[in-house]
Amino acid sequence: TLPFRQLSAGLGVKRIDGVIGTTLFYHFLTTLDFPRGELVLRRKNAESLKTFTAESSEDSVAVPFWMASDHFMVGWGRVETLPPALLFVDTGLAGAGVKLAEPVIKEAGIKLEEDKASEGAGAGGMLKIVPYTVRQLSFGDMREDDIAGIYDGPFPWENTFGFHLAGMVGHDFFKPYALTLDFDTMRIFLTNQPASP
After folding, report:
1. Measuring CA to CA, how many Å separate 82 from each of 51, 52, 79, 109, 110?
2. How would you classify residue 186: left for phi > 0, otherwise alpha for psi between -120 and 50, otherwise beta?
3. Does residue 197 form part of some domain?
4. Which residues of 102-123 are buried (b: 16+ CB within 10 A; e: fewer)?
5. Among residues 58, 88, 49, which one has the least CA distance to residue 167?
6. Which Gene3D superfamilies does the annotation name (predicted)?
7. CA 50 to CA 46: how far, in whole Å?
8. Distance between first and last Cα of the chain
């Protein structure tokens, strides 16, 4: 078991008892609607996809993705003005929109803000967290500016799967969107979604 409760205070919630993720989401047409704070699980069939695409706003962008290992969703993105690179989608990366491999940070000329470093808890214990800002980050055709990033040591999956991962795109990047995962057509739909009143 992993000690999730130790992460609760840092995320500003009363208590985290567990985590759900890709292995569950794979069984549904899943939408993480961040602006509205909703998780929508639709039946995984052609009718649900047809209804979803008919109801999707014109602000929706489809990003192809691939699976690495059993639960790592990987898609094309761009860091600053570097060539396109593969990014791991990690909606559970809280408190940041991106976590890049050190060589990518250096190549992009991103400055680590050592004077703002803090200590945080991860699933493996305590670690030093150094913030930075990415001026431009894209995932598919969706681009966000001035995205907060964190560096907490070597990126463990950089070369694990037989190809290079530049890093991961996380929760804060996706916050303006409803993110829908279609594991049948292997597309992530990002839809600009106004927050609930």
Report:
1. 37, 34, 6, 10, 12
2. left
3. no
4. eebbebbebebeeeeeeeeeee
5. 88
6. Acid Proteases
7. 6
8. 38
Q: Is residue 79 part of a domain?
A: yes
Enter the pTM of the model.
0.84
- Domain of 104 in residue numbering reads as 4-192
CA 85, CA 49: separation in Å to the nearest integer?
Answer: 28
- Express each pLDDT in 99-158 by its tens digit: 999 999 999 999 999 999 998 766 667 789 999 999 999 999 999 999 999 999 889 899
Query: What's the chain's length in residues?
Result: 197
pLDDT per position as a tens digit, 87-116: 999 988 878 999 999 999 999 999 999 999
Provide the token pair at 178: 């409803």
Number of domains in the chain: 1
**Using an 8 Å Cβ cutoff, are 41 and 182 in contact?**
no
89 within some domain:
yes
Q: Amino acid letter at 22?
A: T
Q: Is 22 inside any structural domain?
A: yes
- Give the residues across from 119 on adjacent strands: 128
CATH of residue 156: 2.40.70.10
